[in-house]
Amino acid sequence: MTIETTGLVYRYGAGEAEATALDGVDLALADGEFVVVAGANGSGKTTLVRQFNGLLSPDEGEVRVDGVPVSEDPVAARTRVGMVFQDPRDAFVAATVGADVAFGPENLGLSRSDIDRRVEAALDAVNMGGREDERLDALSGGEQERVAIAGALAMEPAHLVLDEPFTGLDEPARRSVLGRLRALHRDGTGVVVVTHDLRDVFPLADRVVALADGRVAVDAPPGEAVEALAALDVRVPDRVERDVTDVATATPDSDPC
Questions:
Q1: How far apart are CA 5 and CA 92, in angstroms?
Q2: Where does the ABC transporter domain lie (predicted)?
């Protein structure tokens, strides 16, 4: 298992203002899985995934990446688990596309040739090749999202975690980002998507993990998760239910997406 949490507890605030965001979460994500993390607002979704590479540290319990506690080697965890934030601008550290994507590999102390190779491969993976010199603030929202994904890919992670990657994107941008995630998954990268919009990712998911009050309430394949999600006030549109049925009954050689 690449990512594993045991008895994970995380609290916000202190004293009378203290609130429990995660309450004993046990979860294991295998290499190459496409996992959707769902749940109502305040259920703990973002808090959970930010534990995966040490952006947040638990009050109780443990997170391990490849068997190594994140607290013991956060650098290794952040290399293995790439994170893309809800607003890609939150992660940008440079003015241009190429410089931003190169930032992570540079901090690994790689040679210039290895850095250039990673940047080129990551940008090609998101259809942004040859645009290294363009300014980030001149890009569309969808293009910025793809650059953020490229920045995570340049670290060559085993898992790519995306928090609400479709927020604010128009339909062409959504399709572009979704296509990139689908291709990455097919190439063996584990993908974890935190999203309120389940329509696009359900047909791609191997598992759906839903949180309620900081606990895992659902952990099942998409077709089995639909009814339970409705009980958790997670809206699953009719089209998703039909798509999931199609995926469940499709032949191995068919392409449901």
A1: 28
A2: 3-238
- Spans of all domains in the chain: 35-52+74-249
How many Å is the Cα radius of gyration of the chain?
Answer: 18
For residues 31 and 2, the answer to whether their CB atoms sit within 8 Å is yes
Q: How many CB atoms lie within 10 A of CB 202?
A: 26
Token digits of residue 170: 């128009």
**How far apart, in whole angstroms, are the C-alpha atoms of residue 37 and residue 211?**
8
| Amino acid letter, residue 42 | G
Which CATH number does 35-52+74-249 carry? 3.40.50.300
Q: How far apart (Å, rounded) are the C-alpha atoms in residues 45 and 38?
A: 7
Q: Are strands 190-194 and 159-163 parallel, antiparallel or unpaired?
A: parallel
Tokens, residue 57: 């540290």
**Burial environment of residue 130 by CB neighbours within 10 A (0 to 12, 13 to 18, 19 or more):** exposed
Q: Which residues pair with 230 in a beta bridge?
A: none
pLDDT confidence of residue 239: 57
Tokens of 227: 């009814």
pLDDT band for 174, please (50, 70, 90 cuts): confident
Please state the φ and ψ torsions of residue 152, each to the nearest 5 degrees: -70, -40
Q: 9-12 — which CB contacts under 8 Å span 24+ positions?
A: 9/58, 9/59, 9/60, 9/61, 10/44, 10/47, 10/51, 10/56, 10/58, 10/59, 10/214, 11/59
